[in-house]
Amino acid sequence: MRLYNELQNDYTVARKQSDTLACKVLSTLLGELQQGAVMKNGVKVVEDKEVIRTIKSWIKRYDMNIESPDTHEAFRKLCEEEKDLIEGYLPEQMSEDDLRHQIGFMVNDLGMKLPEVMKSLKEDFEGQYDGKQASTIAREILG
């Protein structure tokens, strides 16, 4: 919920500062998140993991547009600006070394197998690592 509140506050600031790019991007993002909100105790709640998932999804779409040879240069530039704006809301990503260390600890010290490692990573480090990279590292360590 913290990330959603941060988005709302930044949207308010962008409106006051007449930042049209931030207003457009943040209002669209907030709207999409609000549609996916879940009810808890009679109140719509947007969890941080949902914000992270949605932002990552948007980034993938931006990357597709940026990398496409058919994309007009002005649209490519706009996609890059919008991507830069929303990437700032993602938590800091674990480095490969940090991920390798954490997975090594889970496997070697705690005796976890692949499904347990992936579940534990998801619970403890949601949005802070690349899932494919984690799976590859876990398989390497498990042999």
Q: How would a textbook summarize the main sheet? A: 2 strands, antiparallel
Task: Indicate the radius of gyration in whole angstroms.
Answer: 18 Å
Strands of the biggest beta sheet: in what spatial order? 1-2
Number of helices: 7
| Strand residue content | under 5%
- Measured between the Cα atoms of the first and last residue, the distance is 39 Å
Strand tally is 2
Order of helices and strands: HHEEHHHHH
DSSP helix fraction = over 70%
Shape: globular
Number of domain units: 2
Q: What's the rounded overall pLDDT mean?
A: 92
Low-confidence stretches: none
Structural class by secondary-structure content: mainly alpha
Any overview of this molecule?
It is built from seven helices and two strands, in the order H-H-E-E-H-H-H-H-H. The protein is mainly alpha-helical. The protein has two domains: 2-87; 96-142. It has a two-stranded antiparallel sheet with strand order 1-2. A hairpin with a 2-residue loop joins strand 1 and strand 2. The chain is globular. The mean pLDDT is 92.
Considering the chains and any ligands shown, give keywords for the structure.
143 residues; mainly alpha; 2 domains; 7 helices; 2 strands; 73% helix; globular
Layout of helices and strands:
Elements (H helix, E strand, L loop, with lengths): L1 H15 L3 H16 L2 E3 L2 E3 L2 H20 L5 H15 L8 H14 L4 H12 L5 H12 L1
Antiparallel strand pairs: 1-2
Helix pairs in contact: 1-2, 2-4, 3-4, 5-7
Brief synopsis:
This protein has 143 residues and is mainly alpha-helical. It is built from seven helices and two strands. The longest helix is centred in the middle third of the chain and has 20 residues, at 48-67.
